[in-house]
Amino acid sequence: MPISTRLTSAITSSGDQIVVPPHRAISPQAHLATRRQFLTGGLAITAAASLSVRAYAAQLIVTNLEDFHSGLARLSMHYEAALIDIGAQWCAFCQTIDETILPDPRVRRAMERIALIKVDVTKMDQSSRDILQYLRADGPPTLFVVQVASGREFSGTRSVGAFRTSDLVRRLRPFA
Question: How far is Cα 175 from Cα 172, in angstroms, rounded to an integer?
Answer without folding.
Answer: 6
